[in-house]
Give the backbone structure.
Amino acid sequence: MKKHTKNSFLNYGIIILFFVIFQTLVSTKHISNSLQGQLIPICVYIVMALSLNLVVGISGELSLGHAGFMSVGAFSGVIVSTALKHSVENGALRLLIAVIVGAIIASVAGVIIGIPVLRLRGDYLAIVTLAFGEIIKNFLNVLYVGVDAKGLHFSLKDEASLGLDIATGTTIVNGPMGAVGITKISTFFSAIILVIVTLFIIQNLVYSRTGRAIKAIRDNRIAAEACGLNVTKYKLVAFVVSAALAGSAGALYALNYSTVVPKKFDFNTSILILVFVVLGGIGNLTGSIIAAALLTVLPELLRAFSDYRMLVYAIVLILVMLITNNEKARILTTEFKYRLKIKKKSIGNKEVSE
Amino acid sequence: MKKKLLSLLLTGAMVLSLAACGATAESDQAANDSAAAETETAETEEETETAATDSADGAVTGTLKLGFIGPITGAAGQYGSLANYGAQIAVEELNALGTGLTIEYQPEDDVHDAETSVNAYNTLKDWNVQAIVGCVTTTPCIAVASEAYSDRVFMLTPSASSPKVTADRDNVYQVCFSDPNQGSKSAEYISENNLATKVAIIYNNADAYSTGIYQTFVSEAEARGLEVVSTTTFTDDTTDFSVQVTDAKNAGAELVFLPIYYQPASLILSEMDKQGYEATVFGVDGMDGILGIEGFDTSLAEGVMLLTPFAADATDDATVSFVKKFNEKAGETPSQFAADAYDAVYTIVDALNAYAAKNGAFDVTDLSAEELCDILINTISSDDFSVDGLTGAGMKWNASGEVNKSPKAVIIKDGVYVGM
C-alpha cells in the first residue's frame, strides 16, 4: 500500500473510531453533558482546521481570514434553513441543503476574494485576508434579512426598512444582533459525515494531479511557472475549496446553536483555527484533526482553574509548541520509530529463518 | 539544549504553581465565605421579607444548587465579574440567615461567547444545577436559554435585556428592563417632560444592546411626535466622535440620545465640550458607571440624564449595606449589573419561600431542576408575588418573563447621581 493511502485510511479510521466511541458513550449515557455538548463544535473545528491546512499547508499561503468564510456559510445556512422551515419539514434534509448552500456561497466569496488576493505573496496576502475577514464581519453587522409570505427581504439599513409583512414576517438576521431563534438541526452524525466528506475531498485533491501542481507551486513558484503551470488557477482552486469547506462547517456550527452573531467570527477565531493548524503541524492532516479536537476541549477541561483558565491554556499552548519543536524530542521520536522498524524487520527475518 | 530543557521545566513549574494558586484561592474564598456567613448572621436583610415569608408556616429547607453564568474574563469581563460578586453577596447573606436553606453557588465563565456559554451551562448540568442566575450578556443568554428550555432548567437573567431572551420560553425571566422597554420609556420620558422636540441619536451599530434600544426608541419617538434630526453610528473600535457630534450639532438637535455604554459616551461628552455644543444628553442604563471612569472629567457629565434601575449612592438602608459589602469584597462601587444579580438570587429564594408559604414546607435538596422549574415559574409569574429589591420596589413578572418595575431617571449634579 502506498504511504499516502495508508495515511488517508488512518485519518478516516481516527474519525470513525472517534464517532463509534462517543456515540456508544452517548447512547449508554456514560458521557458528561459538558463533553457531549462539545461533540459538534469539535467536528466543526476539525473541518475548519483541515480546510485551513489546505491553504496554509498544501498551498503554502498564510490566510488570516478563515473565520470570515465560516461566517458567510453560517449566515447563509441559517437564512436557508429558516426560509425553508415550512417547505422542507425533514430536519436532516434541511441541514443538508443549508450546508450545501453555505458551501456554495462561501466559495463564491472565496472566488471574489481569491482573485485579487492571490496575486499577492507572503505577508501581504496574510494582511489582505485579515482585512477581508474583518470586512465580512462588518458587512454582516449591517445586514438585515427577513422572510415573509412574499419571500426574502434584504436591507443594509435597519430592521424596519425590511418592510416585512407583520402577520407572517420574521427577521432572520438582525444586524449586530445576528440570527436569533434558529431551530437546531445539527447532529453529531451529520457533523461526522461532514468531517469524512472534508477528508475525502482534501485527501483526494492533495494526491491528485491538481494537488501535485499546488504543492509544486508552494515549493518553487518560479520552477512551477517555468513548467507551464497556471499559478493563479491552482492557488485559486485550493483557496476556493478551502472556503467552501469552511462555509459548510459554518452552516453546521450555526445550526447547532439557537443564536449566532457576526462578532463570533472575528480575527480571534481565525487565529484560533490557525493555531490548530500550526500545532497539529502545517501540512499534516492527522495533526490538524487531533489538535483541533484537543484544543477545543482543553479550555473546558481547565474550568477547574477558574480565573486562571485562559492563562493556563496559553501556557499549555506554549509548552506543546516547545515540545513539538524541540530537537531532542524529534530525535527521540525518529529513533523510536527507527528501532520499531528494526524490531519488526528482525522479527520478520526470524520468521523467515525458522 | 540545556537552556531549552530548563525553560521547559520552568514553564511546567509555572503551570503547576498557577494551578496551585487557583486551588488555594478558591479554598480561601470558601473559608472566607463561611467566616463571613457566620459574622453576618446578625445583620439580616429587610428586602428578603416579602409578604409571603412574613406569614409563612412552611419553610424551605435543604440545599439549593444555584449556578451562575457570565463573562468573568474577557472583553465583557467587567459586567460578569461585578454581577458574580453581587450574586455572591446575596448567597452569603441568605446562607447567614440560617433558615435551614443552604445555597451552594457555582459561577462559570462564558467570556461573552455563545459557544462557551453553552459549554458552561453543560458543566453546570454535570454539577446537577437546580436553577441558574444568568447569563449576564444577551447573546450567550439566548443560546443557553434554548438549551435550558428543552432541559427545563429555570433561568433568571440579571442583565440580558433583549426580548429575544425570554421570547417563546416560559422558563426564562429577566430582572432588568428589556431593551424595547428602555427605548420606549426613554422616548416617553423625553416627550412627557418636554425635554426636547429635536433629537439626535448616536448609537453603536455593531452592538446588539445599542441597536435594540435604538430601534424601539425611534418607533416610539415617531409615535410621540419627537423629531429625530440626526442619526449617526459608530462601532466598537471608534475613538473619534467628531463626525457624529458635528452632525448632531448642525442638525440643531436640542437633545442627544445615547443608547450606549459609558466608555464611548464619555468620549462623546468630551467631543461635545470641545465643539462647544450644549445640548441635553440622555442615556440609558449602560451609561451607569460614567462617573467612575478614571481620568474622566466628571464636570463634562454635568446635567446628563439617564434611565437606570440602580444608583449606588442612593441612601436607603438596603443600598447602603449592599454598597458597603460590595466595596469590601470587590474593592469597587457596584454597578447595576451587580445589583441585578443580587436581586436575582433573592428573587429565586423569595419565590421558593412564597411557594412554601402556600403549599407547606418542603426540602429542595432532592428536587430535580425540572420540578423546581415548574415551582419557580408558577410562583414568580403569579399575581401576588412581588420582590422589593435594590433595582426597584414591587418588582412583578408577567408570564412572558419580563419584569414590571418603574424606571428611575437620574440626573448628574455636582458629580453625583440625583434622582429626578
The two ends of chain B are 70 Å apart (CA to CA). Chain B has a mean pLDDT of 83. Residues 46-177+318-405 of chain B form a domain with the Rossmann fold fold (CATH 3.40.50.2300).
